[in-house]
Amino acid sequence: MIASISSEGVGLWRCLLVVSVLGLSACAGQPKTFSSKEHGVWQWRQQQLGELNQWTFNGRVAVRDAQADGWNASLSWRQKDEHYDIKLSGALGQGGVRIHGNGGQAVMEAADQPPQMAESPEALMQAQLGWYVPVRSFKYWLKGQPGPQAYERDVDHLGRLARLQQDGWEITYKRYARVNGIELPRKLELSNHRLRVRLVIDQWRLHTKEDT
């Protein structure tokens, strides 16, 4: 025997079904949101990193391209506002490569070669090494901070970047270290369609305005 359902009952079931479907759609389609506390920690941390404009680190870098060719090198990077001084030791079997400059000009110096100049470090690296990394974005990413362009991010419970997608790159932050009370990346991986870069930072040094 089939029980009959009143028109009022049919209407109620239809309402419940619509509400359920809408609820599931909202759960599936909404982007990840952050609580006010998480957002406050993120904003505080970004302000802290934004004030950090003079620093040096020493570390190790491994670069691999899409053909699985690559090399390892020791890396030293000094940043002072818009000025950068990057030194690679042992890259491509050479005695060393130095790239330095500011927002308007870049210079590359390599052993037994005359200095090369260009408007950007990216152009120099592409011409001389056959690949490049976005140096002007790296000064943000290395600190655990997005650059000024559009980005997507995942953040851990301490307000630190866990993953960042920006400028065609994906950056995964594997480990942090506390330096002068600031959480800074210690190990990170960066990749795009052509390159994979693994970076281990052995030592950070934060400079003050009085440092030369």
Structure description:
This protein is α+β, with helices and mostly antiparallel strands and 212 residues long. It has one domain: Clam (outer membrane lipoprotein receptor (LolB), chain A), CATH 2.50.20. Helix content is 25%, strand content 41%. It contains four helices and eleven strands, in the order ααββββββααβββββ. Strands 6-5-4-3-2-1-11-10-9-8-7 form an eleven-stranded antiparallel β-sheet, with helices on one face. The radius of gyration is 24 Å and the shape is globular. The N terminus is likely disordered.
How would the blueprint of this fold be written?
Elements: H1 7-29, H2 36-50, E1 54-65, E2 70-80, E3 83-89, E4 97-101, E5 106-110, E6 116-118, H3 121-129, H4 135-141, E7 151-155, E8 161-166, E9 169-179, E10 182-191, E11 195-206
Antiparallel strand pairs: 1-2, 1-11, 2-3, 3-4, 4-5, 5-6, 7-8, 8-9, 9-10, 10-11
In short:
The protein is an alpha+beta fold and 212 residues long.
Low-confidence region ranges: 1-32
State the oligomer.
Answer: single chain
Helix share bin: 25-40%
User: Helix- and strand-based class?
Assistant: alpha+beta
CATH C-level name: Mainly Beta
Radius of gyration: 24 Å
Number of helices: 4
- Please summarize the sheet with the most strands: 11 strands, antiparallel
Q: Mean pLDDT, as a whole number?
A: 81
Shape: globular
Q: Give me the CATH architecture, please.
A: Clam
Instruction: Indicate how many domains the architecture comprises.
Output: 1
Which key features would you list for this structure?
single chain, outer membrane lipoprotein receptor (LolB), chain A, 212 residues, alpha+beta, disordered N terminus
